[in-house]
Amino acid sequence: MTNKPDKILIIDDDYDILELLEYNLNKEGYITETANSGIKALEIVKNFIPDIIIVDIMMPGMDGVETCRKLREIPELSTSHIVFLTARAEEYSEIAAFDSGGDDYIIKPIKPRALISRLSAISRKKKEKVIKDENIFKIGKLEINRTSYTVSIDGNIVVLPKKEFELLHFLAANPSKVYTRDDLLHNIWGTDVYVLARTVDVHVRKIREKIGEGFIKTVKGVGYKLELDD
Question: Residue 69 to residues 9, 42, 86, 161, 170: CA-CA distances in angstroms?
Answer without folding.
Answer: 16, 11, 17, 34, 21
